[in-house]
TrEMBL record:
It comes from Streptomyces antnestii. InterPro entries: BldD-like_C_sf, BldD_C, Cro/C1-type_HTH, Lambda_DNA-bd_dom_sf. Residues 13-69 form the HTH cro/C1-type domain. Pfam families: BldD-like_C, HTH_31. This is Transcriptional regulator. GO terms for biological process: negative regulation of DNA-templated transcription. GO terms for molecular function: DNA binding. It comes from the Bacteria.
Amino acid sequence: MSSEYAKQLGAKLRAIRTQQGLSLHGVEEKSQGRWKAVVVGSYERGDRAVTVQRLAELADFYGVPVQELLPGTTPGGAAEPPPKLVLDLERLAHVPPEKAGPLQRYAATIQSQRGDYNGKVLSIRQDDLRTLAVIYDQSPSVLTEQLISWGVLDADARRAVAHEDL
């Protein structure tokens, strides 16, 4: 594998990982040690060659088709990761509890798990938004619009949800 190809493959791997809101350590945790952070990082930098078998296993882990990881393919404009979903916790505190109670409890749980108590903003993942949509008995796009109307999510979140629907 050429050095340039390895770097392009690594860039695709990194893009998929970051789109899913995972750090290298997060990959290791989510895979229960199956994918070591140092190994995935070396694949992403192009320092280490990845076999076809391992690439297929990594694609399966990320839940994407193998061709999404191969250089030279940009189906659906996958080169640009979707915008991050960032909750404005200060504005959330001003939304009436009868509306925002489930979201406030969910955000508090995430903060507790991460040990992240800055109190200003909280990044959430696409999976979190889908879970919240189930809790609120709405589609992710309808819930996104609701959160934008409350001032809890930035309007850029629409692009993240639209990216999910592709």
